[in-house]
Amino acid sequence: MEPFAQFLNRTLDTWERALMRLSMQWELHTNRRTILIFLFGSTALLYTYITYIEPPENFPIGLLVTVEEGATLSDVAADFERGGVVRSGAALKSIVFLMGHDRDIHAGDYLFNQPRDLFSVARAISFGAFGLEPTRIRVPEGATVAGMARIFAPQFQRFDKDRFVRDATQFEGHLFPDTYFFMPNATDQTVIESLRNNFEQQMAALEEKYGTSTRSREDIVKMASILEREAEIHQDRRMIAGVLWRRLDRGMALQVDAVFLYTLGRTTFDLTMKDLTSDSPYNTYKYKGLPPTPIGSPSLDSLTAAMTPIKNDYVFYLADRNHVTHFSKTYEEHLRKKRLYLGT
Predict the structure, then answer these.
(1) pLDDT tens-digit profile of 258-309?
(2) Cα–Cα distances in Å, from 177 out to 36, 70, 137?
(3) Which of 116, 173, 234, 339 could form a disulfide with 120 if both were Cys (CB 3.0 to 4.6 A apart)?
């Protein structure tokens, strides 16, 4: 009969081998389950991201998105889904609700300069992160209303170019040229108000500094708009102002070429005899007095020159091709200088 100790050892070995086989099988099945769980979880996460979180392909990059005053979360969610801001309005509602901001959505214009996922959009409307940064715009001296429309229209989505020209034309010359900072949601009316207010402030300061003038404000602005195009140097502008005010007081035609740049887009060196005889109320060769309106927005320098002319005995002036201004007391002297400096 087999000794008990040998029997016990053999039995223990058998059990050990059996447990090892069971352990190996368990590990094999555990690895498979882990892999399956990982694959399933990854697939679910990817599906969730693509279906709900990822920015839509038609995300409105660089376009203003508006949350109307008084709009509910449901309204915003539906609008954002239709507008391509989020893939799922329902998902947006859920995220905002979980954030505790379902009753305090911030109304206003939002601007996203790059695609934003669901969570970023939810945070934006929950905390009022509008994404609006001021845009710097330079309105050059002498700019006309039409020229300003071309400057502003490409910059602002809510700027109506035609409406600006229609409404601002009455303020030609009274929209101050300067550097401005406007928010991306600026409208044509916003621009008009800002430029008008700046003009009024600048004119009030000039009138306080130089006192009242025998000339009306409108005449000063018209004269300044001419000076802006007739000369570049302040002293020349003041001299020309003295000449032109003198011609007006004598009942003489101004005969300035700057008006043709405004009406025909032509400079002194491009003008023809036909241009000089054209039947336009702005033709200061044909019609006496100042033009019907300013011919652009004069700078502070030109406005100052119009208000502080240098009195002189000159009646004529011309600018050569190097922009140097030459003054004459008689018409014969003026013709001689034209031949000398312009070759005409």
Answers:
(1) 898 888 876 666 666 676 777 899 999 999 999 999 999 999 999 999 999 9
(2) 69, 38, 10
(3) 116
Q: State which H helix or E strand residue 137 sits in.
A: strand 135-138
| Contact in structure between 242 and 315 (CB atoms under 8 Å) | no
Query: Higher-confidence residue: 18 or 146?
Result: 146
Say if 306 falls within a structural domain.
yes
Residue with tokens 């000159």: 314
- In 3-state terms the chain splits into helix, strand, coil percentages (rounded to 5) of 55, 10, 40
Q: Give pTM, 2 decimals.
A: 0.81
Degrees (nearest 5) of the Cα angle 277, 282, 284? 60
Q: Are 62 and 111 in contact (CB under 8 A)?
A: yes
Strand partners, 179: 138
Range of the domain at 278: 213-342
SS3 317: strand
Q: Is pLDDT above 50 for 67?
A: yes
Residues 103, 159: Cα–Cα separation, whole Å: 32
Residues in contact with 3: Cβ distance below 8 Å, sequence separation at least 6, in sequence order = none
Rounded mean pLDDT, 139-162: 97
Of the CA atoms within 13 Å of residue 99, those in its CB half-sphere come to: 22
Q: Report the domain count for the chain.
A: 3
Report the CATH number at residue 142: 3.30.1490
Q: How far from each other are the two terminal CA atoms of the chain, in whole angstroms?
A: 144
Residues 201 and 220 in one domain: no
